[in-house]
Amino acid sequence: MEATKVLDAKGLACPMPIVKTKKAIEELNTGEILEIHATDKGAKNDLTAWTKSGGHELVKDTEEDGVLKFWVKKG
Amino acid sequence: MTIKPMTAKEVTKKVINKDELFILDVRNEGDFKDWKIEGENFNYYNIPYFELLDGVEGIMDKIPADKEILVVCAKEGSSMMVADMLAEKGLNVSYLEGGMKAWSEHLEPIKVGDLKDGGELFQFVRIGKGCLSYMVVSNGEAAIIDSTRMADVYVNFAESKGLKVTHVFDTHLHADHISGGRIIAEKTGATYWLPPKDATDVVFEYEPLEDGNDVTIGNTTINIHALYSPGHTIGSTSFVIDESYLLSGDILFIDSIGRPDLAGKAEDWVADLRESLYKRYRALSEELIVLPAHFMIIDELNEDGTVAEKLGTLFAKNHGLNIEDENEFRKMVTENLPPQPNAYQEIRETNMGKINPDTEKQREMEIGPNRCAVR
């Protein structure tokens, strides 16, 4: 998937992955995609809820070797 | 204004003392609905922390300035952030140290009573999850029953009192929490007991806990009689300690009875459950103090924080012990059961020794309330 921007939030604990994601997505235009890498297990739950409440779309998420990856389309 | 940490132990004190506390829970709505800190005089407001990243102005009218305020999240980080924001607005606030993770793991040892010949009985209340475990103490020795996975708490408690742990029991193969029994036995050299009918698939050594066993703790007259009382699991065993206390495992609770479906055999076991509750327990002295392996709601806590009630009182008041009609009983324990505990199959396999998840994974498996009863 073509991401406009990649955010490395690996090693950060809650709430930082969401704080950084919010900042990063503010710099994008509607329809552009932000790719987020995180290692905090709670990130999945939180990002899912956050994208919903913010009117964005979680297009895809994966997990490889303990790294959670998310693709969020700005709403 | 400043923020300060509040420990799970301090919150537990407030629950027991029925203090007032305003809890701002910043976890997701679903997590909050599923499981939260319960206190008789606690008030709550739930809003996910990520809705507050731009500031807390929008919720200031929800926060009472005249009450003690505790901000709660899953692990700690978000609650500190929100507490900081509230402090900037001039409020004195605390955050829950270690978050709901710490709350789930906190054990509060409370003395239940003295035993004949100088022994003591302690109940370890896992307040956040509703698990109850026990330590019988007598003449330098200790026995631990239905321990949680926080093995060190029991071992340290015993050490601090100069006790040698000699026996560790599980009343049944637990499905809602991971047992610390085997680990405590390994650490202390104690004998680990488990009902053999629940242990057919376990991969470790254990002493078969069967009807008629007597185990002596210390050299006083504290005896533990195994009373075979199937129903919640096929092996569920109760103990009568010192002729005074009935440890009822997951068969009988204060305000509810055990659910028979967690090994997928509700229909098969319902008759056993009825037999245990309506015949075997009826044959015991009504003066016995019932000490269950769980509590469901905070109302079950006594003034001192223990969960205990006379058997005679339960015969009079517990709905589950007063269903004359067998079919109605069958229906109650097999239909409309509450949702099953989180990861209960994996928890059973862990307790059998078949899988060995790491601590982080074990924590995750145990998230949420226990759900082993029907009301």
UniProtKB/TrEMBL annotation, chain A:
Protein name listed in UniProt: UPF0033 domain-containing protein
Start and end residues of each UPF0033 domain: 7-31
InterPro entries membership: TusA-like, TusA-like_sf
Pfam families assigned to the protein according to its UniProt record, in alphabetical order: TusA
Family listed: Belongs to the sulfur carrier protein TusA family.
SUPFAM superfamilies in the cross-refs: SirA-like (SSF64307)
PROSITE patterns in UniProt: UPF0033
Domain of life (superkingdom): Bacteria
Organism: Lottiidibacillus patelloidae
Automatic annotation (TrEMBL), chain B:
UniProt-listed GO biological process terms: glutathione metabolic process; hydrogen sulfide metabolic process
Signal peptide (residue range): none
A Pfam family matched in the record: Rhodanese
A GO MF label: sulfur dioxygenase activity
Gene3D superfamilies per record: Rhodanese-like domain, Ribonuclease Z/Hydroxyacylglutathione hydrolase-like
Annotated transmembrane regions: none
UniProt domain Rhodanese: residue ranges: 17-112
Protein name as catalogued: Rhodanese domain-containing protein
